[in-house]
Amino acid sequence: MSIEQKETAVGADEIVQVRREGDVTIVTMNYPERRNAFSMKMRLALTEVFQRLMHDDPDTRAIVLTGAGGHFCAGGDLSEMHAATPPLLALRERIAVGVRLFKLIYTGTKPVVAAVEGTCYGAGVSLAAACDVVVSADTAKYSCAFSKVGLLPDTGILWTLPQKIGGGKARELMLRGNVIDAAEARRLGLVSEVAASGRVLDAAIETAARFASYPPVTLALLKASLVNAGNSIEDACRLETDLNPLTRQTSDHTEAVKAFMEKRKPVFTGA
Question: 66 by DSSP, 3-state: which?
Fold first, then answer.
């Protein structure tokens, strides 16, 4: 099913909404009555959408992840946790779904830009940290609040947050669970860009559109390299040696060189 077909099938009450602007697809968490809490329904819906966008939709070249109702994501849905504790295997599957979603965003072939307004707590920070770029409202608030509700950090943040802001600061934020503002999140490196409230989604779409204009194969290989090159200097050198020759053989590389010589804008096809 194409994005256009999917879009017509998704009503305003759907927990995840999808729409396209050119080569950019905007994914909106739509659970505003609970500030887009990361419920099981939300986890499953986001996983299905990102699986399709990353693997089955060649027309999408970049993705924006945002939230409805002036908030990004308030973290886990505590109303679900208020009921009787599920069996251990059910709890493991709940976490496993979040892990699958994290991997789709973080290791997927297409750039993902988070557009963060309002509350970004717990799993909301995990989702933002998994994205390649975070555009934040100047009024947004961030908190790794897992420990305050007796839970361990999840949805990949044990890996992504130290990678983004360093081990010491990540340890402090996750242990304390304190609230920080957008300016502090930007200083630490969690946030890439700060925009005025109400302007965030437009800024995120502009950033994603720039990514969408780049050669898709190169971006896919770059994301794979960034995920796998950090373990050792040997890994980094091996990836450089193995993958750079592949980019040299793409039609998009040839087009980039030709456009430069002809002083015009290149047109990339993903070949």
Answer: strand
